[in-house]
Amino acid sequence: MSHARAVDTPSPPNQPTAPAVSPRRRSLNERKKSRTGWLFVAPFALVFVAFLILPLVYAFYLSLYSKGLATGVVFAGVKNYATAFTDPSFLRGVWFVLRFAVVLIPVQMLVSLALALVLDALTTHLARFARLMIFLPYAIPAVIGALMWGFLYSPTFGPMQQLANIFGANAPFLLGPDLVFFGLMNVVTWQWAGYYMIIIYAALQGIDSSIYEAARMDGANAWQIAFRIKVPMVSSALLLILVFALIGTLQFFSEPQILRPLSNGTITPDFTPNIYAFSQAFSYANFNYASAISFALGIVVFIAVYVFLFFTRKRGSVFT
Amino acid sequence: MKRRKRFAGVMALATGLLLSACATSANNSGGGASGAATEEEKTPPKLTNCTNEMKNDAPQVSVWAWYPNMPNVVDNFNTNHTDVQICWNNVGQGGDEYTKVQTAISAGKGLADVVMLEADRLSSFSIQNALVDLAPYGADEVKGNFREGAWKDVSQGDKVFAIPVDGGPMGMIYRTDVFKKYEITPPATWDQYAATAQKLKDAGGPHFGDLGSNVPALFMALQQQKGAVPFGYDPAKPQDLTIKLNDQASKDVLNYWADLVKRDLVGTQDHFTTDYISGVVSGKYATYVSAAWTPGYLTGAGVGKGSSKGVWAAAPLPQWDAANPVSVNWGGSAFAVTTQAPNKRLAAIVAKGIYADPASLEEGWKKQIIFPLSKTVQDSPDFVNNKSEFFNGQTANKDVYVPAGNAYKGTVYAPIQVYYYAQLQAQLAKIINGKTTGDQAADDLQARIVKYAESQGFNVTA
């Protein structure tokens, strides 16, 4: 139909080029295809809308109101959000999860990356067994894992205390105010390192082994292959799990909530923003304020992830 | 394409509006069913999810309670009644049950007809119009069976929101083996308590007691013992609240225990944890300032058997002024009727009759599960002269708990009691970790509670 074509190959007169499909029939076909597509998506969409979108909308609606015990329900607009962002409990919780994320995530990544690299280099049966064992903590429900660690940390029954008893000393209490940060970090790393390791390991398996051959021919030893070739090539997988880890850690809830009765008062009802929202909703019945806190946390997570992705964006890299 | 986008946009907006409409009603119905017409004679539905079995076909009333001997209590009631049957479920102990009660109140449905509540929670729920005033339903019939303090705890003015079952008059239980070994006697005043603790420590003995941060109700009772009146609340003026948490008496008690912690005379373990129970068993704490239901609770947790058998005795709670003893109370329970009950008359019959028959009460106090507030029990010589097995044959009721229960004058609890407990717990945890003093804790607590009460719409008198 271009002007050049008309000049190069003059079409015979009185024979208009019929289009492949008439305009009306094309959109009918399209409509049929898209309808089938929607039908396939429908079950997921139903569940998604019912259990994610609708509760979100309702929670947002709740967060726009405020209810006092002595007063009724009152429209508050963004007042709840203003209160949330100036609430010292909420801000302290956010500060804690930010610090926790900044320390925990590199540690987790290092551990899982090291494990994946080692398992990738070994090809013995031990490697397969080790892979299963390292992944096993992830298969244990978070609640059970946290409870178990709570007893392991116990200043009466825990193995650390048993060991210290031999020397007549007192083991440090890993849920006490000074060490709770590391106590929690330990539990989370134990639980999640296997999961991240599997993802990195799968990414490593996807690397073409001829690259290793080429590297070996160039004289690279195992360490150089690991750090100069393998790590950069799994960087996209690394980025993926870093984002997951960041989102998950900022919403830290299960482990501290389970360990709260065992922490001798260290883990307070406002320890992390999610615990704070939970306490507000189910202990004090402030459902409106709790919804506002949840959304405020969502805003914080969104900003954090955006900042993170901004700083790690690829600038025309080969491995995009 | 544009049409599709517009259609999607309209659908989203419509959904949002529809939800808001539903949400409005849900948000408002959380205020309670008080607006509904009195549905007194409505037949309650046949309930299907009961832990117990029905004895006959009478209308059923649902009950939530967590007493360990509840199956027997329910069977006793169901056998003795042909007008109503109980359908009972244990939905958790203490805080776990209260969370569910609160959620059901906020949702406007799902609450049992009769719930077991501690007296300190009643005003939190009654202010949300979730509890039925039992005065028009014959509460007076049973009023005479309870002492003044016990009845005051479940009433607000002329309204009665629950029928008492058991109480927690406080005393001090101690390890006779530790006391014998170090030649010390039970202290009668708090000054003596501190002095004895120091003497025990100097002799190389264990901690004299334990300050747990997770029992704020206990600490509030100890503050009341010195004369503190934390809250003033008159249901006739439900929007007014008096808050006095940093008066001298409250500060004195906080300072006293902070000092004991600092001098390492008492432990700092949270109560009701496995670490604490194992400490109790192994004699890590020479005394346990506790309530009348404690022996039953400890027995259930494994104390009093094996190595810790027969080494316990009970003594009256130490006093600030031996000439003017004050009795205080920790815990205790009552049955309240909720506004979500379809037939309030039948539910009231249940509330008045449950755990009130002689068989249930006798089992309860014989096994030291409850300290019954019923006067018929408390005045019976069997109960008063009971030789407690836990206390190695001591007549603990006569010596300690019955006099304490009789002298108890009742407490006013605030509608924001839960929040107050959580903040008090946080302050106690800070004291235990040496991060604050008693005075600072009291002032900080006062400021926080006042701020919270104002944010909930109360007119606060500080």
Can you walk through the features of this model?
- The complex is a heterodimer of chains A (320) and B (462).
- Chain A contains 14 helices and 2 strands.
- Chain A has helices at 3-8, 23-63, 79-86, 88-121, 125-139, 142-152, 159-166, 180-205, 209-217, 222-233, 235-250, 254-259, 273-282, 287-311, and strands at residues 65-67, 73-75.
- In chain A, strands 1-2 form a two-stranded antiparallel sheet.
- The relative contact order of chain A is 0.11.
- With 462 residues, chain B is an alpha/beta fold.
- Chain B has 19 helices and 14 strands.
- In chain B, the strands form 4 sheets. In chain B, strands 1, 2, 3, 6, 11, 12 and 13 form a 7-stranded mixed sheet that branches. Chain B has a 3-stranded mixed sheet with strand order 8-9-14, covered by helices on one side.
- Chain B is globular, with a radius of gyration of 24 Å.
- At the A-B interface, α2 of A face α1, α3, α11 and α18 of B.
How is the topology of this model organized?
The complex is a heterodimer of chains A (320) and B (462).
Chain A: H1 3-8, H2 23-63, E1 65-67, E2 73-75, H3 79-86, H4 88-121, H5 125-139, H6 142-152, H7 159-166, H8 180-205, H9 209-217, H10 222-233, H11 235-250, H12 254-259, H13 273-282, H14 287-311
Antiparallel strand pairs in A: 1-2
Chain B: H1 2-29, E1 60-64, H2 70-80, E2 85-89, H3 95-107, E3 114-117, H4 122-126, H5 140-143, H6 148-154, E4 155-156, E5 159-160, E6 163-175, H7 176-181, H8 190-202, E7 209-210, H9 216-225, E8 231-232, E9 240-243, H10 248-262, E10 266-267, H11 274-281, E11 287-291, H12 294-300, E12 312-316, E13 329-337, H13 344-353, H14 358-366, H15 375-378, H16 381-384, H17 396-407, H18 417-432, H19 438-455, E14 459-461
Parallel strand pairs in B: 1-2, 1-3, 7-10, 9-14
Antiparallel strand pairs in B: 3-13, 4-5, 6-11, 6-12, 6-13, 8-9
